[in-house]
Amino acid sequence: AMERWLPNHLQDVVLELLSPTKLATCSGTNHNMYELATSERHWKLLWERRYGRHYFKACMPIHVLFRHQFGVEALRPTLVVDPRIVASDPKQGVFKTLTEALSAVSGMYLEGAGGLRGAQQHLECSSASCCYEMEEPASCPLSLPIPRVVVQPGTYMEQLTIENPVEIVGAGKSPTDVVLVQNEMSDNSTSSLIKWKAMRGLVSNLQLVQGVNSEGRSKAVYVMGPGSPDREPVSVRLHKLDISSSDGYGVDVMAATVEISECCVHHCSVCGISLAMADQSTVEDNVFLNNADGILVWKSGNGVQPPDAHTGQFPTQPSPVPFKPILVRGNQMFDNTGSGIGVHSHSNALLENNTVSGSGQSGVYFTDYALGKVRGNIIARSGMAGVSIKSGAQPLIQGNAIVDGRSAGVYIRGSAGGLIQGNWIARNAKAGVGIKQYATPAVEGNCIADGRASGICVHRTAGGEIRSNVIGDHPNDDIWLGAGATATLAQNSLQVTPADITEFATSMEMSNTTTVQETRVVGQLRSTFFRRERSVVQLPSSFGAGYSEQLRAQMCDCAQDFILPGEELLEFAGQH
């Protein structure tokens, strides 16, 4: 009411009477109030009341120092986008289009000490003389709140290029209430619905529909790194989005870091999410439906270094820059026509507690010297191998249910290796574990049953260690060794009856650590079947009202037959 009836100079008089906390609260009302409430004038008065002397050091805006000194709440500028208004009102921070709002955000990042960019340049000052007005003159790492754009429900036919830190948040009850769509290419447009170049930010609670036909190159979200080590790294969080791309990628990340959570990624003709040189990225608690490939990881997470081109030998020294693996956890992936998750090109990924069902090709695969860990996943009804390991890859496959595939359960070839340990592998059309072409994995402590070929099949030129597995009766040999195979066999239990399989599998515990003792796996394998509390992912309205129940029924059907024998029904990988 004060803002509606009083001119700015009278509002300033009222603001002079407020405490730091109340002044910070007023700054979050709208764009105009933010400009008034972050004025140097008001914060200098507060400083003088606190210290009894003038503030005269201008290394950064005084409200930033004051907030750090006294724990005042963040001063976040907030803009509103509403398609129902007649015209934009920059003074009130209300805009008709997202493009206009983002232009206003760019104006906030002015060069110089008074703007957000100027303040950000001074956030890490190590000189005591720079901050001598503070009670504790020392290094003061601060972080400025970034502007927020609140988008009211509606359909927006726009393309966005984001170069400054910002939060874009839909104001609807679900992501499908706020739709950002591109259906055709104009002369000056690109094939990316959102092109992200900013050093940090958030996109949340929106539906992103990329309908442009650009020969497989269109992207709903394109996160592009700086291209130079001298520039600031690019990072963004994508949360509760509905993402589709009829002729390309849902999310394409190149040399940047992303955190993708609780999104529904569907009907992407090339790939749901592609991560290239995307170290420290995470993909958690998302749903992937009817894409080509679900998730592809390229040159990320610091995997195996390639062999020398002349000697063929692998380097003895580890990579000088250790990055943590790409984290892919708690995702539900159904009916993707390609593979569920692929890890390529010297990458390193941790795949944990995912459900991957109905993939047209492999459920999960590692190739080209990739590393990784695959733990506690449900991998079912794959068109090819449930888990495929090839071309020098060496992952750990532990504590998974790999079942009902139309080829082998686990297939290792092409000089690959790794450890296949403590998995429940059942009802696959070909071998439970197939080893070919100079592959030398360790296969131990698995329960392999009800296959339509051999339990474990080692072809000529392949080898490895096969030990302490429990293998049910199979139509072919329980363990078949081709001429010239060099595998070592030890302490395996063969032709185990269904009753003994059930007893053994029920006692199996799926965990990160397994102890092999003679003919039985003991440990805590079942403990990886856990799951954090999480909110329900919003499914796209275009699927129809009954799709959520249909998907839940599919999850139940996927889980109930093949998880460790017993009465308990698991609806998600990781649920105990």
Task: Describe the overall structure.
This protein has 576 residues and is an alpha/beta fold. It contains 10 helices and 45 strands. Strands 2-1-3-6-9-12-15-18-21-24-27-30-33-36-39-42 form a 16-stranded parallel beta sheet. Strands 4-7-10-13-16-19-22-25-28-31-34-37-40-43 form a 14-stranded parallel beta sheet, covered by helices on one side. β44 (514-517) and β45 (520-523) form a beta hairpin. The longest helix has 14 residues, at 547-560. The two termini are 54 Å apart.
Helix/strand layout:
Elements: H1 2-5, H2 8-15, H3 20-27, H4 31-37, H5 40-51, H6 62-70, E1 78-81, E2 94-95, H7 98-108, H8 116-121, E3 148-151, E4 154-156, E5 160-162, E6 166-170, E7 178-182, E8 192-196, E9 201-204, E10 207-210, E11 218-224, E12 235-239, E13 242-245, E14 248-254, E15 257-261, E16 264-268, E17 271-276, E18 282-284, E19 287-289, E20 293-298, E21 326-329, E22 332-334, E23 341-344, E24 348-352, E25 355-357, E26 364-366, E27 371-375, E28 378-380, E29 387-389, E30 396-398, E31 401-403, E32 410-412, E33 419-421, E34 424-426, E35 433-435, E36 442-444, E37 447-449, E38 456-458, E39 465-467, E40 470-472, E41 479-481, E42 488-490, E43 493-496, H9 498-507, E44 514-517, E45 520-523, H10 547-560
Parallel strand pairs: 1-2, 1-3, 3-6, 4-7, 5-8, 6-9, 7-10, 8-11, 9-12, 10-13, 11-14, 12-15, 13-16, 14-17, 15-18, 16-19, 17-20, 18-21, 19-22, 20-23, 21-24, 22-25, 23-26, 24-27, 25-28, 26-29, 27-30, 28-31, 29-32, 30-33, 31-34, 32-35, 33-36, 34-37, 35-38, 36-39, 37-40, 38-41, 39-42, 40-43
Antiparallel strand pairs: 44-45
Helix pairs in contact: 3-4
